[in-house]
């Protein structure tokens, strides 16, 4: 579907993350949020009223609105692929929360069907579009640390059941620290090094159950169905490598660590789960910092998709990028299970850096 003017958007899923998307999307002139849908229609209505969205109801009602060109899929990971397929079947473009799907076959089928219908699938995370990681990308492209060679990423926490009111999905298939947090770190690494070539990984599980720590479900026991620790070595097509740890079983939280070492220096990137932060550059015994600011939260990837639809260009947080990240995560999980290196079959082109004057608040359509 093509047209002119602002792009109509609808959201399926009115849970916690919808607040961030609605905060951003309802403030952008190039998109118009027309509908909020949820299986719990009362929850959808509450979010629509809170953010001034004109309509709410069921997912089927949303998919019947002809003015909606992009549907933002904010459902739980287990149904991402099914809901996205229903969106495509309705003739609409998809923005999906991460991960794109739970397995390679589902992700590949989704992208193939969208291509067949002339539609687009894009996917979170869009944090790499913020000024933090875009500043890192520009520094790397300018040769600030020479040739990027290695990286270290760390996400270590005690687990989301300590703060999330309904955390069971974090420990179900499609969750765990790898599939929940991996997309932020792995997307960042692909921005730095390009596509991955192979992985070798180990995993463990500290407890078979977890206890909800807050909210109306506090005290409830949930089952742990996936590893709560994954450590991976990743080899990239460029010859570079990265070591990554994803953990929900650490008693000393360390999150947001991304260090990129090159032939002439080292860059410490901001937390890849955030849009801004401090960038550190170390070389030849000297160090300096760059402070980056960004006023938006999740949703700017939807804007980039909307502008790409109108211009005919390729969106940066593309389905192809999300599929490659899904392939990396699936290969890591397979390697940890089988105890051997696993190749990453897919490849992808690195999206170009954003122009320095890229402005979400500008009306361009």
Mind explaining what this structure looks like?
The protein is an alpha/beta fold and 365 residues long. It folds into 2 domains: 7-126 and 298-316, Rossmann fold, CATH 3.40.50.720; 127-292, Dihydrodipicolinate Reductase, domain 2, CATH 3.30.360. 30% of the residues lie in helices and 26% in strands. The protein contains 9 helices and 17 strands. It has helices spanning 18-25, 41-51, 59-63, 80-89, 104-117, 131-141, 176-193, 300-311, 319-338, and strands at 7-12, 31-37, 56-57, 70-73, 93-96, 121-123, 148-156, 196-204, 209-211, 221-223, 229-236, 241-247, 254-262, 266-269, 277-283, 286-292, 342-343. The strands form 3 sheets. It has a 9-stranded mixed β-sheet with strand order 16-15-14-13-7-12-11-8-17. The chain has a 6-stranded parallel β-sheet with strand order 3-2-1-4-5-6, sandwiched between helices. Strand 5, helix 5 (104-117) and strand 6 form a beta-alpha-beta unit. Helix 4 (80-89) packs parallel to helix 5 (104-117), helix 5 (104-117) packs antiparallel against helix 9 and helix 7 (176-193) packs across helix 9 (319-338). The chain is globular and about 55 Å long. The two termini are 15 Å apart.
Features:
365 residues; alpha/beta; Rossmann fold; Dihydrodipicolinate Reductase, domain 2; nine-stranded mixed β-sheet; six-stranded parallel β-sheet; 9 helices; 30% helix; globular
